[in-house]
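Cross-posted from the bioinformatics board.
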Amino acid sequence: MSFELIIQLTDSTIRLTTPLLLACLAGMYSERSGVFDIGLEGKMLAGAFGAAAVAAVTGSAWIGLMAGMGVSVFFAIIHGFAAITLRANQIISGVAVNVLAAGMSAFIGQNWFKMGGQTPQLSGSGRFNEISLPLAETLSGVPVLGAIYSDLISGHNILTYAAFVAVPLSAWVLFKTRYGLRLRAVGENPGAVDTAGISVERQRFSAVLICGVLCGMAGAYLSLGTSAAGFVRDMTAGKGYIALAALIFAKWTPKGALLACMLFGFLEAIGNKYQSITIFDLFVVPVQFMQALPYILTVVILAGFVGKAVPPKSGGVPYIKER
Amino acid sequence: MEAESEKAWHHDAEPALKLKGISKSFGPVKANVDIDLSVAKGAIHGIVGENGAGKSTLMSILYGFYKADKGEIFIDGKQIEIPDSNTAIAAGIGMVFQHFKLVENFTVLENIILGVESGGLLAPSLDQARKTLAELADEYELQVDPEAKIEDLSVGAQQRLEILKALYRKANILILDEPTGVLTPTEADHLFRILRNLKEQGKSIILITHKLREIMDATDTVSVMRRGEMTDTVATKDTSPEGLAELMVGRKVLLKVDKAPANPGKNILSVRNLNVTDGQGVARLKGIDLDIRAGEILGIAGVADNGQSELLQVLGGMRTAEGTIALNGKEIDLSLGDQGRSRRQIGISHVPEDRHRMGMIMSFSAWENSVFGYHNEPEYSRPLGLANQIAIQNTSRNEFERYDIRPRNIDLTATFFSGGNQQKVVIAREVERNPDLLLIGQPTRGVDIGAIEFIHKQIVKLRDQGKAILLVSVELEEILSLSDRVAVMFEGTISGERVTSETDVNDLGLLMAGMGEATT
Amino acid sequence: MNSNIPKWVDIGLIPGLNLLIAFALAGIGVLVVGESPYRALTILLQGALGSSYGIGYTLFYATSFVFTGLAVAVAAHAGHFNIGGEGQAGVGGIGVALICLSFLGDSHWLLVFPIAVLAAVAFGVAWAFVPAYLQARRGSHIVITTIMFNFIAAALLVYLLVNVLKVEGTLAPESRRFGEGARIPQMNEVGSWFGLQLASTPWNISFFVAVAACVFTWLLIWKSKLGYEMRAFGASAEAAVYAGISPFKITMVAMTISGAMAGMMALNTVMGESQRLILDAVQGAGFVGIAVALMGRSHPVGIFLAAVLFGILFQGGAELAFEMPAINRDLIVMIQGLVILFTGALENMIRWPISSFFDFRATAKEAAQ
């Protein structure tokens, strides 16, 4: 493998990791608070659509991003209302969000733009363009380090940087702040939080809203920050579920989320680059296997064969004050 | 003399807590009716009452979980509203719940500061808590390692932490709900020392319990609740356990069960060197030996969670174990799981400790519950794996008559029945199988007094028919009044065995704490 | 759950109201795009039920949804959420296709069909088996594993259609057409045996299998000892152990039956309609099954009715998209989402007020006595 190829694959990995990482962190906030969310996919999709549609109309990627987050938050509120306020089955609520988001985005998109569910092609300020970090051009000539700086570190859009910054930031919030303490507590033992005079509902709702914002960013990245440059039907294509898988892989920690998403992003990058991989001239690994690998790995992890993934103790359980 | 009367006057004038006319209903259920209560400063005030008498509701109102429908609350003579727990905490009310409210994978310090952090960042709060905790520990003899994880603490230490949590929040009124249910008598004594200490420092303590002995030992005054009403408040020294029991129930109660001396026959059950290890690798039962003869009730006493549940589960076929168990001389294979059915077939019936979680399916109709566990018997079967529902309903109807289960409607869902009637459904089901051995756990938990007498009579009747009975109860009174022999469990072992007529509460209490001589 | 609610309210009024809200919101959606909801509804009903052709398609779709709805319901009774109907049906389709593509495909449908049923069952079960086993033995959350298995199934299907079953020289990722012997009778043919004139639609004899599956499920859940054990375990695992019911057995059995139901869905689409294995044979029916089971309260009769309702939506929706350019089939997906939302996730929004009304009435009655 040449150095160029490594750079190329890594660069591709970073791009593919971005939406996974944002969605995975989104799920982390929600599930750490005790609200399971299989609706990451739907919120991402809705966010992607909202962002693309508004960016197309206003010509501003930033307003698009706001809209994408807004739409995603709208679905997060539905999920929160069902799961927290109405104590509904969180799986059903998540499924509802996914199906509803898929239907609504396509239905509205079709009627709005009459392009078969797509949004118009975005360009210029309607997209998040690549940011050249200072001196990237100048340093690109320096062997190895120059290439790493100019091709890997520089040249991504703002959302990619945001996603990677969100990892240490989330770790800090989760483990060093009052908010994080309460968030972790409410997912483990909401009774302890409640009797400490903190509203369980409010705490969980706040986490669900953060989840909505981050899913919206993930979606906006897909429609405004990739070469798609616009919304395409079903453009999340299961990324929300991969993020969910990554979250389990990550054992609900920010650092783990980064590693798991990079791994899954890397697998996707390989899958995009090669149609099949031949190992030692013996096995031919088809691309479909690469695509299925994140799911297979997650099943293996869930089965506890490679380190047990233990979810927050009160996850998925609506909180009812005892009499 | 003068100083003392002044002190007394001071007490009367401004009680730490005063409730006036508190009422609360849940739909048709009147949980609290016009409750008045006054708790003096620096006093330990007991509240006793049966299950469902309204104690917990009243405390939940005090702690801001529920809003009272009407009534007034005064703290130090000042009227306040308590819309939420925050307000309660700010008003100086601290609560130690029966089920601790601790985050298991947090440290002691993290649990302490939860909800009263000094700012957005944790580090300063933790430092402050560490310092304060050391001071509190000195002041009240409440030692807990601040950096320990909760899951590594003993039950007693967790309870001390709950008290520390309240003190850290500057509680002046401390409410403890059934605090000794999970403690050994020694730990309970330790707790009461702490409480007296707190009282000396001027804190007011409300002790909710259904254990009359604790009330007599620890409190200055005691209030009795019955059916949502506060029936009486008396000075503890002016009352007796019998008097309190009568107030609780509203009529004279037989604390003793009428029964003839046992007439034991041949050995029915013998247990030898029984060992159980749980999923985490913790030994739950360690070398248990037991024998029960026909026509005999063996009571298993002990503080909750000392292996009694595991013993019942092994005997009832719910979990695997090592060692030998023989019924009527025939050995049972303990290496197999899910043996509930085969146990029933060889003549072991099982009234489980928790009828809501185990003994019944609450969403099933009563008749479906009447054969739960026996549903595969040939008499309830039809070809092709179908159930003979007519036969099942006949059985159920029959048992409803014989055990006077009300309402007399087998189609109702289990949730419709009162605790006593639910328990009767379970007991009828198990007793009517005519077992050789009846396992019965906490037979009267959450059951009204009337049903308790009935259930106790049924157990004695079964004994007199020559059956062997293993009775597990955390209520010493119940053990003493029903059993012919008593075995005490402590940390997975039998810490002692006694003939009931030759023992008493103190003797058993020592064994329950693992402090008796280990002779059998 | 709540004791004072009469049965008719529980199984009739509450789902009815929830459905009404879902449709009202969909109606608003139609209004927003500038069409008349009333006209849309008329076209929808007309398209779905107004002709033998429409009814045929409606019941064709309904057949699929009965299978996937039963799959969700059977697992739900045992306390498991099988969200993997999509994958199980997809893999069931592979089983059906392998039989139909084999030498059997050139024999007679009377021979092929029973074998294909067995294959659909076997393959569907196989795909449910691993998640079931991992749940029962290793405690892996079945919701997550079945989701993962949906994606693995999708990848497997693509692999087979691209690398193994594709007809050489073509681009389309689909298998060759099955032999004439693997063609099961459509209902118009069945009708003609009895002198009935029906339009030619994909509605086929798998419908009878679906009806039989409903009867089977009813007997299983409400009349058999196994169903009793499944419901007991679903309500309380601990109680089930007390009663001598093996959690392992129940989980495996429930998921086996569930997977079999989902797998059989492929009979309807692969054998009854497309006559070849295609990429998207399931068409989201696995997820529709969730909505169907929720609406039908996991009862076979309810599921059948809910499946027909969704059949109407799918068929009528297609007509609607044809008649009203502003409306496309995504509206139907949206309605499906709204139905899951209101009959599942937001059910308590309606249930709680109604239940407190009946509590209040019960109190008042008590007071009057």
